[in-house]
Design a protein that fits this description.
It catalyses: tRNA(Glu) + L-glutamate + ATP = L-glutamyl-tRNA(Glu) + AMP + diphosphate. Belongs to the class-I aminoacyl-tRNA synthetase family. Glutamate--tRNA ligase type 1 subfamily. It comes from Pseudothioclava arenosa. Catalyzes the attachment of glutamate to tRNA(Glu) in a two-step reaction: glutamate is first activated by ATP to form Glu-AMP and then transferred to the acceptor end of tRNA(Glu). Monomer. This protein is mainly alpha-helical and 466 residues long. Among the domains are: 151 residues, Rossmann fold (3-Layer(aba) Sandwich), CATH 3.40.50; 86 residues, Arc Repressor Mutant, subunit A. 48% of the residues lie in helices and 11% in strands. It has 19 helices and twelve strands. The strands form five sheets. The protein has a three-stranded parallel sheet with strand order 1-2-3, with helices on one face. Helix 1 links the parallel strand 1 and strand 2. Helix 5 packs across helix 6, helix 11 packs across helix 12 and helix 18 packs across helix 19. The N and C termini lie far apart (82 Å).
Length: 466
Amino acid sequence: MSDQIVTRFAPSPTGYLHIGGARTALFNWLYARGRGGKFLLRIEDTDRERSTPEATAAILQGIQWLGLDFDGEPISQFARRDRHAEVAREMLARGAAYKCFSTQEEIEAFREAARAEGRSTLFQSPWRDADPATHPDAPYVIRLKAPREGATVIQDEVQGDVTFRNDQLDDMVCLRSDGTPTYMLAVVVDDFDMGVTHVIRGDDHLTNAARQVQVYNAMGWKIPVFAHIPLIHGPDGKKLSKRHGAVGLEQYQAMGYPAAGMRNYLCRLGWSHGDDEFFTDAQALEWFDLKGIGRSPARLDFKKLENICGQHIAASADETLLPEIEAFITASERPSLTELQRERLAKGLYCLKERAKTFPELLEKAHFIFAERPLEIEEKAAKALDPVSRGILNELTSQLQNASWTRDKLEQCANGVAEAHEIGFGKLAAPMRAALAGRAATPSVFDMMLVLGQEETLARLQEQAA
């Protein structure tokens, strides 16, 4: 056996990829990748009625958007049902499990009697120690022969040692009477067969761990390292739900958050490294460990998310930012870019990405790139286009006809026209903004001129000049 670390993310394809699931995937990815290990994906599709191919596709797309690469092909839990059944029968042969012929009516009658007498309603099968010679020719389930005495202790990297009294755990069903395995058995068999060394998942699985450990023990298998992480709550401290806003990962892409910012924010949600808030993937991979995960639920904070995303947009290289903006445009069902718009956007990212917290904000700043002549002029901007200003624009346009299209020359030219009219440059900038973008608030007029190019700049100025 190698000492290589193997983690896994095992979502159920019954709906969108929840933001909490995305963080679990991220923690598993960081832990494995930061230690040269493997990160595997398993689709827990045993619930045939609720599992859909669309949900599986959404999970794969979400993980891909978040930038979490996994090793090998995704594993289908349902496709491995024969292997799960084989292990249940092996436990039977080892005496670690038994056939239970009790019917649903008998189990319910047992529980009703237990309730009436005020004792535990955990079902105790009369077949646990029955002589196989007395077994009827009838349908049966295979139950784990769980220890009745003592306790099962989960040594958890986040929660510490968690103790479950064995008399509080029943003999769980491993194989149903129709031969299909239960989720509890399938998870353990899959994790063992996949060589999973570290099970990092939400703390809502903590009680499952107690029962799953008993399966490991029954089979004589090595128990993986467990790390049960607290769930994510909304800003009000209640369990995250749709009333708090977006809970599905694909919604965050469609809202225009960059993947790098999302990784950074999700990583910080429940895990910390000193006071570091903003960090790169390389730093996260180097720093991430299980000891830094807190025991309290993390609270989703959209302001903090936007702040971190803004820093990542500003820090991103233009060539990586542009394809991500285009993917956002597709995800949010906006009209795709024309070749010219794409060219200008690529050229203008240097002046658009500062102080934009999301891609919609960046595209809003890039309005001048998408605007087409004749420009619609906002009311506030139109006020700057009085007859005097239009006359000055006319003069500026003729001066720019033969100017070298560099920032220094453009500034020199515009400042020269402003001085000739004995006005501050601010008085000239307002009508220029209106003419170039149709708005009062825009990026620097010189940035816009450089991005639009000489021909388009002159055409827009000419349109508004008197």
